[in-house]
Amino acid sequence: MASKALLALFLPLALVFLSCLAEAQLKLGFYEETCPHVEDIVREEMTEILKVAPSLAGPLLRMHFHDCFVRGCDGSVLLDSTKGNVAEKDAPPNKSLRGFGSIERVKAKVEKACPNTVSCADILALIARDAVWLSKGPSWPVWLGRRDGRESHAAETKQLPPPKASLPQLIAMFAVKGLDLKDLVVLSGGHTLGTSHCNSFSDRLYNFTGKDNLYDVDPALDKQYITKLRNRCSLTDNTTLVEMDPGSYKTFDTSYYNYVKKRRGLFHSDAALLANDFTKAYVERHASGLYAAEFFQDYSDSIIKMGNVEVLTGYDQGEIRKKCYIVN
Ligand SMILES: *[C@@H]1O[C@H](CO)[C@@H](O)[C@H](O)[C@H]1NC(C)=O
Ligand SMILES: *[C@@H]1O[C@H](CO)[C@@H](O)[C@H](O)[C@H]1NC(C)=O
Ligand SMILES: *[C@@H]1O[C@H](CO)[C@@H](O)[C@H](O)[C@H]1NC(C)=O
């Protein structure tokens, strides 16, 4: 008797709980009814954008990464600063960010077809997928239904792994986001696309330990490569761009791992991948170029996982921004 009464009491509660859980998750085909062509619209715009400016693929992929690492994938990276608040995009790491105009352009097209329906965070996840695919990389299904956050704070970009991070720092910063060692070495493979400003790595070329002589360089960086990079970058140069995967920085492939293996990764965080048996083995396997399909699958798995980090879902969280740079 008592157990039946208890069941009657708890079953509805359990159902409510389960349905909340289900609601708090992203879905494939989330916009099937409300904006059935959203993925086509994004891909069409991205095709146009990259046809004119193929070098934007790297920055647009990077933008999704920056978004997810700070406050979860909620579009906070896209918000402008306001009076009294400095937004993420105006924090020091923003120098690596480009392509905000392209995101607004895609968003405007989607708004025209389906007003007030598709979040900027979802559009950014689709843009990142298409940036990779249009650069001859893999494609992957994008789970949708993210809501846009209403806050963005420059100070929170501390959660982003900096280019100077050591391996233990990288591991810890990924772990906070639920990402493991494999995700770290796999997502680093995204450095196959794009460029970097000199000042993200120039400390490795000059005055590495403060001795201030010609030989004071990062021993983890290949000597000949140092000479080459020095010809491009002075210690204080913050404008020159250097390819992260020279020769194929507009193509998504495994050659980045070959550079890292040859101790020619640009950042400390690239070199750090050789400091751990697991990540080193991964770098060496993919440096061979023989397992591109495997890397593509790994990359798809890891970026789907990253796209789930701390998302806002359901009608009671966040909003659907009309424009990505400003809250409604
Ligand atoms: C961040 O970007 C803005 C323009 O979007 C620029 O005015 C500002 O100087 C940048 N800040 C840094 C530290 O690079
Ligand atoms: C080299 O590093 C030392 C110690 O950090 C610093 O005092 C010195 O000014 C640096 N030299 C240059 C040329 O930046
Ligand atoms: C680049 O460096 C110059 C000189 O060191 C500095 O005045 C300028 O603000 C820097 N620009 C950025 C975007 O950080």
TrEMBL record:
Its EC number is 1.11.1.7. Residues 25-328 form the Plant heme peroxidase family profile domain. It is found in: Secreted. Keywords: Calcium, Disulfide bond, Glycoprotein, Heme, Hydrogen peroxide, Iron, Metal-binding, Oxidoreductase, Peroxidase, Secreted, Signal. Heme b binds at H191. Ca(2+) 2 binds at T192, D245, D253. One of its GO terms (molecular function) is lactoperoxidase activity. The record marks R62 as: Transition state stabilizer. Belongs to the peroxidase family. Ascorbate peroxidase subfamily. Removal of H(2)O(2), oxidation of toxic reductants, biosynthesis and degradation of lignin, suberization, auxin catabolism, response to environmental stresses such as wounding, pathogen attack and oxidative stress. These functions might be dependent on each isozyme/isoform in each plant tissue. This is Peroxidase. The gene is LOC109713114.
